From TrEMBL:
<comment type="subunit">
    <text>Dimerizes in the presence of ATP but not ADP; ATP-binding is required for double-stranded (ds)DNA-binding. Interacts with DnaA.</text>
</comment>
<dbReference type="InterPro" id="IPR025669">
    <property type="entry name" value="AAA_dom"/>
</dbReference>
<protein>
    <recommendedName>
        <fullName>Sporulation initiation inhibitor protein Soj</fullName>
    </recommendedName>
</protein>
<dbReference type="GO" id="GO:0016887">
    <property type="term" value="F:ATP hydrolysis activity"/>
</dbReference>
<dbReference type="Pfam" id="PF13614">
    <property type="entry name" value="AAA_31"/>
</dbReference>
<dbReference type="InterPro" id="IPR050678">
    <property type="entry name" value="DNA_Partitioning_ATPase"/>
</dbReference>
<keyword id="KW-0378">Hydrolase</keyword>
<dbReference type="InterPro" id="IPR027417">
    <property type="entry name" value="P-loop_NTPase"/>
</dbReference>
<feature type="domain" description="AAA">
    <location>
        <begin position="3"/>
        <end position="178"/>
    </location>
</feature>
<comment type="similarity">
    <text>Belongs to the ParA family.</text>
</comment>
Length: 254
């Protein structure tokens, strides 16, 4: 059965895109067929997997706003077994353009209905907001994976995220679950990071993944080569931890 997972946190820079790209690539490396849907106008997941945004003809915007069949947008990536529905800057208009459209929250869900069985996993890289794009992702998904950066104010804003989660559960997708909470960018040299780990575990308990993503410079370098960490440097710490996370996701996450 296909599992559809939205990677979301309305804070920017917490590791959503890094996590989406690399857990998707790790699962592909482990032999799963994976589709990554880039739902952020920045298009960082798109370019990070070797797709030139300048060459993209149709993207997720055309699926959501113009309702073209999603299969017309699917592209191969720099990783075998991993396909991408790209995003480009035109997606920035989608929040406003969807506002007055009927059943706007279910556009992505309906688009995926026809193709989801072609994949083992579908990951959606959400934008740093709780607008229509994130609501579409939540409505289409089985579960939400929440990256939390090991920094001051790590828990700040999470109550709004959980509110949106519950609203979508109540109105559009009653089976929606929390896939897991992922601690990211841990700096092992400071106490602060470990204090945040404890704080987040106190709040989310068994929902927190055992795998914690450390700061790893190879993870930040890989996107500029258009590669996931699996292809850029399989032996790096970054690759190992995202493979660990992929294995946790395979054993049904949290
Ligand atoms: P988001 O999608 O939530 O905005 P990103 O995944 O784009 O966050 O990460 C923000 C920045 O931090 C990027 O420059 C990325 O390369 C870097 N980064 C993310 N995770 C790590 C990590 N574990 N170690 C080092 N740099 C990271
Ligand atoms: Mg991002």
């Amino acid at each position: 059965m296909t599992r559809i997972i939205a990677v979301a946190n309305q804070k920017g820079g917490v590791g959503k895109t890094t996590t989406t790209v690399n857990v998707a690539a790790a699962l592909a490396y482990l032999g799963k067929k994976v589709l990554l849907i880039d739902s952020d106008a920045q298009g960082n997941a798109t370019s990070g997997l070797g797709i030139s945004k300048a060459d993209v003809d149709k993207d997720i915007y055309d699926v959501l706003v113009n309702q073209i069949p999603i299969e017309q947008t699917i592209q191969t990536s720099s990783r075998e077994n991993l396909w991408v529905v790209p995003a480009t800057i035109q997606l920035a208009g989608a929040e406003i353009e969807l506002t007055n459209q009927p059943h706007r929250e279910a556009r992505l869900k309906h688009a995926l209905d026809k193709i989801e069985t072609d994949f083992d996993f579908i990951f959606i890289d959400c934008p740093p907001s709780l607008g229509h794009l994130t609501i579409n992702a939540f409505t289409a998904s089985d579960a939400v994976l929440i990256p939390v950066q090991c920094e001051y104010y790590a828990l700040e804003g999470l109550s709004q995220l959980l509110n949106t989660f519950r609203l979508v559960q109540k109105h559009f997708n009653q089976d929606l679950k929390i896939e897991g909470v992922l601690l990211t960018m841990l700096d092992a040299r400071t106490n602060l990071g470990f204090e945040v780990v404890e704080e987040v575990k106190k709040y989310f308990k068994e929902k927190v993944y055992d795998t914690i993503i450390p700061r790893n410079v190879r993870l930040s370098e890989a996107p500029s080569y258009g590669q996931s960490i699996i292809d850029y440097d399989l032996r790096s710490k970054g690759a190992q931890v995202y493979l660990d996370l992929a294995k946790e996701v395979l054993t049904d996450g949290k």
